[in-house]
Amino acid sequence: MDLLTFLQQLINGISLGSMYALIAIGYTMVYGVLRLINFAHADIMMVGAFASFFAMDSFGISFALSVFFAILISVIVGVLTDKIAYKPLRNSPRISLLITAIGVSFFLENIVNVTFGGTPKSFDIPEYFDKIIHMGSAVLTPIVIIVPIVTVLLLCVLLFILFKTKYGVAIRALAFDIKTVSLMGVDSNRIIMIVFIIGSSLAAISGIFWAISYPILTPYMGVMIGLKAFAAAVLGGIGSVTGAVLGGFILGFTEVIFVAFFPEFGGYKDAIAFIFLILVLLFKPTGIMGINFEKSRF
Amino acid sequence: MTINKNFIIYTLLSISFLMISPYIFEDYGMRILNNIFIFIILAASYNLINGVTGQFSLEPNGFVAIGAYVTAICLLSEDLKWDLYQLEDPAPWVLALNTSLVPALLLSGVIAAFVAVCLAAPVFRVRGDYLAIVTLGFGFIIKVIAINQPEITNGSIGLNEIPSLINIYWTGGLAILTVIIMLNIVHSKYGRAMKAVRDDEDAASAIGINTFKIKTLAFGTSAFFEGIGGGLLAILLTTISPDLFTFFLTFQLLIIIVLGGLGSMTGAIIGTILVIGGSEWLRFLDGPMNIFGFQTDAHPGLRMVVFSVILILVMLFAREGIMGKKELSDIFKFKGKKK
Predict the structure, then answer these.
(1) Residues of A with CB under 8 A from a CB of B
(2) Is B322 an interface residue toward A (CB < 8 Å)?
(3) Among partner residues B133, B254, B308, which is closest to A230 by beta-carbon distance?
(4) How far apart, in whole angstroms, are the C-alpha atoms of residue A119 and residue A217?
(5) B262 in helix, strand or coil?
(6) CA A24/CA A162 separation, integer angstroms
(7) Binary contact (B136, A274; C-beta < 8 A)
(8) CA distance linking residue B143 with residue A270, whole number of Å
(9) How big is chain B by its Cα radius of gyration, in Å?
(10) pTM to 2 decimal places
């Protein structure tokens, strides 16, 4: 493998990893605040992808507008799931919350299945993403380059929100100790809503990236992607936003490189996330950026 | 479990129900009943590790898959294997393996338990949610292996034409036996140690319980019965493929035991009847319906929408599950005698 091909794989891997990372951020933030593995999160990504598809297909609006529509719908769905399904269970056993999350996940998958039908939808990729860039022997598509750039920009915005604004302080404080912080006059439900807004919009953006990269949409597309993204979040150290992005990058990169180097084991691609995760947890039980969960978050 | 009057009465009631069931239900009903019995085996054994020992494991799908494949390979004849394996020739030991029903089921259980004991060392290094994600990963890896070892499992095509050697007495009998064994374990010295691990692992360790050993024991036992349940499932369905053993199976079992009440064996049984029977009963939703004179089209998937809404509602309003940690014999006592 020459250097250019390696670089091509590297960029592909980082691009794939960015898409995992955008979802992993949502997992890690919700886990940080609520200690909930939000199984419905990946389905919010799927809702985002379908919303964009629906907006272009039925309303005939442009791609750029459909992105905003997708984010809007995802945020509404994300906030509603919190209000309806998670909020009443704030003080109950965590397992009930988890089962509810699984229930929401089934609900979203199947409501989309019933509404749009079970047949896979093919996503209309806008023309400007369809070009191919040749660099010597390496072949790249624009989306592969755009995805990591957007991800890093969004991460910067997110870190700014978390560390420089009032709401960021509140989010970090809630992650530290939700009960005490609520007693000190912070409206915890409102802050949790903001966490869901952030997570859902990032998931929607990731969903559109997936739709452009792999333009076949199914109601169950979120299941596999979500599990891997969650593995990425744990790999990076759950509760840490930078860790989630790092975990996503590592995961995407490993997957691409593994398939490139061992094509005969390509079928095991989907298992890599977990093999890697298990290995890391054996040596570092809290993940790479893992802070001891009793002490600090983000 | 002390053999008391309640216990005997409940056992006799279940056995007599099993005996008369073929005369009550039709073919379709019997199929659902078979399914319910198999899921009682799976749920009761999953309950041992999740509910009784409190270790949040998410990999029964892996053990069920192992059991199903071992049973299928054992029961298929050599000629049939040559026909079925399309992607690659079957491995020599796969061809040689050919047993009757009982050894096949036992082998399924033993292999599943062996895998569980091997996994215990890495799995129980972590706790809580990390344990959940690690076990989720192992369940997933087992499924991926099933897809990618075509000389053993016939890859994504799966195995079919598995001889249907069982009837309701097999599934029902094994279900009753499993529940009895589980109750015996729960009420034994080891069962109390498991509950101690669930309630406070550090404290249990401090009073001299070897928590790793107890967790491994629970994990292995539960895997053994999940393997047998998987074998029965393979025989009942007569066709298996890796798609059957996704997280959906694990989630289904998790829903069953939480709905019934974590840690309660009766809860596991009631949960199974509600979830498996209920989702079967909701099947009418998928077809065309006549609502107040309006004819609607068929909506495949509507059943699952309604199912998930009911699930969310139950979790919102019955948080401890239906039985909590109680058993049926705690509520309805015959002659009200204390143990």
Answers:
(1) 31, 35, 37, 84-85, 88-89, 92-93, 95-96, 99-100, 102-104, 106-107, 109-111, 113-114, 118, 223, 227, 230-231, 234, 238, 265, 267-268, 270-271, 273-275, 277-278, 281-282, 285-286
(2) no
(3) B133
(4) 9
(5) coil
(6) 16
(7) yes
(8) 10
(9) 21
(10) 0.87
For residue A88, the chain B residues in CB contact (below 8 A) are 316
How far apart are the CA of B265 and the nearest CA of chain A, in angstroms? 18
DSSP chain A: --HHHHHHHHHHHHHHHHHHHHHHHHHHHHHHHH----TTHHHHHHHHHHHHHHIIIII---HHHHHHHHHHHHHHHHHHHIIIIIGGGTTS-HHHHHHHHHHHHHHHHHHHHHHH-SSPEEP---GGGS--EEETTEEE-HHHHHHHHHHHHHHHHHHHHHHHSHHHHHHHHHHH-HHHHHHTT--HHHHHHHHHHHHHHHHHHHHHHHHHHS-EE-TTHHHHHHHHHHHHHHHH-TT-HHHHHHHHHHHHHHHHHHHHH-GGGGGGHHHHHHHHHHHHHHH-TT-TTPPPTTT---
Which domains, and CATH codes, for chain A?
A: 10-283 (1.10.3470)
For B119, the closest chain A residue by CA position comes to A278
Between the alpha carbon of residue B181 and those of residues B48, B188, B222, the distances in Å are 11, 10, 11
Per-residue pLDDT of chain B (339 residues; tens, 9 = 90+): 456 777 788 888 888 888 888 888 888 888 889 999 999 999 999 999 998 998 889 889 999 999 999 999 999 988 888 888 888 888 888 888 888 999 999 999 999 999 999 999 888 888 777 888 889 889 989 999 999 988 888 888 888 888 888 888 999 999 999 999 999 999 899 999 999 999 888 899 999 999 999 999 999 999 999 999 999 999 999 999 998 898 889 988 988 988 888 888 888 998 999 888 888 888 777 777 666 666 666 677 788 888 888 888 888 887 777 777 777 666 666 554 443
CB neighbours of A203 closer than 8 A, spacing ≥ 6? A22, A23, A26, A41, A42, A44, A45, A48, A74, A78
3-state secondary structure of B290: strand
Hey, is the C-beta of B251 within 8 angstroms of any chain A C-beta?
yes
CA distances from A142 to A241, A251, B188, B206 (A): 26, 21, 64, 59
Partner residue opposite B134 with nearest CB, options A35, A95, A281: A281
Interface membership of B255 toward A (CB under 8 Å) = yes
Using a CB-CB cut-off of 8 Å, the residues of chain A touching B305 are: 107, 110-111, 114
